[in-house]
Amino acid sequence: MKSSNFFSRAAAALLCASAFAQAPGVLTVPEPAKLIVKRTENPTYSLKVTIRPGYHANSNTPSEPYLIPFKLTWESGGPLEAVEVAYPKPKLEKYEFADKPLSVFDGDFEIVTRFKRAANPQLGPAYLAGKLRYQACNDKMCLPPKTVEVKLPVLMQ
Amino acid sequence: MNSTPMRLAATTAVLLLGLAGCASKPLSKAGPEDSASSLKPASKRNPAPGFTLKDVDGKPVTLADFKGKVVLLNFWATWCGPCKIEIPWFKDFQKTYKDQGFTVIGVALDDEGWEVVKPYITDKQVNYPVVIGTPEVEQLYGSVEALPTTFIIDRDGKIASVHVGLVGKKDYENEIQQLLQ
User: Fold this and answer.
1) Per-residue confidence at B31, pLDDT binned at 50, 70, 90?
2) Could you tell me the CATH number of the domain that includes residue B144?
3) Cβ–Cβ of B139/A16 closer than 8 Å?
4) pLDDT of residue A123
5) Structural domains of chain A, ranges and CATH numbers in brackets
6) Does ipTM surpass 0.95 in this model?
């Protein structure tokens, strides 16, 4: 997002509620369970995602350059560093509005993140902050891109 | 120099002035249930909220300037597949009905603005005014929750129908023809 647009949108948000609100509940992520990280362990974490029936989200590798990819990112600087984010195999689905099949995710699926333990992590409880960016459509309409904040509780042993 | 607070304050001030100058009442939220709506009776139509937005050349496009014409106001984005089905139809409508007192206005809602919209409308040779939407205009039109969302506005500047999602070309054309009579 360009900064000028960001400022316009941020300012407008002060004046009124978000104008371009995502319909609630199209994509849901359950509250993550605590990840207990044993000494010297480099853990993996599976984020469960559900997309409402009838809707799909572009996969992490969309078929067309104009489509917004599905993307999970994790903040760095915590006790764990994300090394790899593995997405499920996308489906190729044909929709009325596209000439070619599109690479999408739908239904229930998991995104697996492989973490590396930081060099000298602070032991005890902590949170890892993640952001899940997606853009969903059904066969007739599209919803605006949305970012879901993910807060993963971890216990570093 | 960190100019962020000044820029934010300036932007907010501009938006406040813009909203203060806009006496339009926001519409109620348009939802998917409006997808198949046909023309509302004239007595039940609400005024289309006024706005001024800039086109690709930086020229202002003011809805009020089109009073007396039938306007197809289409909210869309380059990342919206269904929107791209409709754009060739709208080009046809613009070509066919322009001289009868009709225009399409496209309101693009891409965060990246002209950076992505200009190449697209140039490539597709879009023959009607396209502007970049703002959150306050979206708000005036009842929170545009899904794209495409299209408002058909009658010659009196009132909203005759709302369509959320992909609609048949013939459905639009029937409404345009009725309003042009």
Assistant:
1) very low
2) 3.40.30.10
3) yes
4) 93
5) 21-156 (2.60.40.1250)
6) no
